[in-house]
Specification:
The protein contains eleven helices and twelve strands. With 288 residues, the protein is an alpha/beta fold. The strands form two sheets. It has a six-stranded mixed β-sheet, sandwiched between helices. Strands 9-8-7-10-11-12 form a six-stranded parallel β-sheet, sandwiched between helices.
Length: 288
């Protein structure tokens, strides 16, 4: 297990900019405490020019690693020594582990989404067509996971070229790019089993927003998964539930990707139930 010789706390935290009320400190601190580890999770809100010196400081010692979020998941790649697992395929990193003087990048978002999908009984059986909204970093991990599990993906983005670039870079599976407008969304959803929101539209504090154009009928057989977890029920999920759809928010994925990061850093099984409870408590205590 990584720890310094004296068993002193090692630094670890979430790297991004800007960072607001992240649930990760509550979730990871609960896991460190349960494992009897002295580390405390910090928010590392740094501007882009400060990334290289921070990576150099990590190499110099005293760090366990970090999580990485918007806007640094791809920017950080050239500053690392190695990418492992899904990070290599996705060229995006959300977890860094310090190994001696080397920085190793992982991506646990794909695992987190796969784990969240596996927890939904009606989606465990044969795959079908999934409509994915947005073509940014999280969509990349989600689309990759879906095609690995045999789903056909209709990838809708407000910039068609972004969806086309994502499809070209994954170079696998059946991925059809389209524009996120009402006629396209309605026709693609008519044949879909699953809708996944990978845009930040509807996230606190803009909780009144909805990524799906107004007036589109949602088939009641559709399952709607929103990666957003603040608020717990987004406007999209409320609309889907009102149309008779089954729904889930992004907390399950958040906890699964965080648990995988904890295991990478410590080599220990993550106390997932505890981490979920800590994240839920932080969510309910916040002003969301
Ligand atoms: P990102 O890389 O910035 O990508 C966001 C995507 O949404 C881009 O395609 C962007 O298009 C699109 N978008 C933004 N505003 C839009 C709007 N008003 N209308 C239509 N499309 C819009 O962000 P990300 O890292 O993929 O994160 C996306 C969301 O997933 C965030 O809410 C994040 O918190 C959530 N997330 C959750 C988890 C979890 O564990 N539950 C994990 C990762 C991410 P443009 O490029 O044109 O702006």
């Amino acid at each position: 297990m990584p720890a310094d010789a004296a068993g002193a706390p090692l630094r670890v935290g979430l790297l991004g900019h800007p960072l607001d009320h992240s649930l990760s400190p509550a979730m990871q601190d609960a896991a460190f405490a349960a494992a009897g580890l002295p580390h405390r999770y910090e928010l590392l809100d740094v501007a882009a020019p400060d990334l290289p010196p921070l990576m150099a400081a990590m190499r110099a010692g005293g760090w366990l690693g970090c999580n990485v979020t918007v806007p640094y998941k791809t920017v950080i790649v050239p500053l690392l020594d190695e990418l492992r697992g899904d990070a290599e395929m996705l060229s995006a990193v959300n977890t860094v582990q310090v190994e001696g003087r080397r920085l190793v990048g992982y991506n646990t978002d794909a695992f987190g989404f796969a784990d969240a999908l596996a927890a939904i009984p009606e989606l465990r059986s044969a795959a079908g067509t999934a409509v994915v909204l947005g073509a940014g970093g999280a969509a990349r991990a989600v689309v990759w996971t879906l095609v690995q599990h045999g789903w056909r993906v209709q990838l809708l983005a407000r910039r068609l070229e972004q969806a086309a670039a994502l499809r070209a870079s994954l170079a696998t599976g059946t991925i059809q790019p389209g524009t996120l407008d009402a006629p396209t969304a309605e026709s693609r959803l008519a044949r879909a089993r699953l809708l996944v929101n990978c845009t930040p539209v509807g996230m606190w504090p803009q909780a009144d927003a909805d990524p799906l154009p107004a007036g589109i009928a949602l088939p009641p057989e559709l399952f709607v998964y929103d990666l957003i977890y603040r608020p717990i029920e987004t406007r999209l999920l409320a609309r889907a539930a009102a149309a008779g759809c089954r729904t889930a928010g992004g907390l399950g994925m958040l906890v699964a990707q965080g648990a995988a990061a904890f295991t990478i850093w410590t080599g220990l099984d993550a106390p997932r139930r505890l981490m979920r409870t800590a994240a839920e408590r932080a969510l309910l205590a916040g002003d969301y």
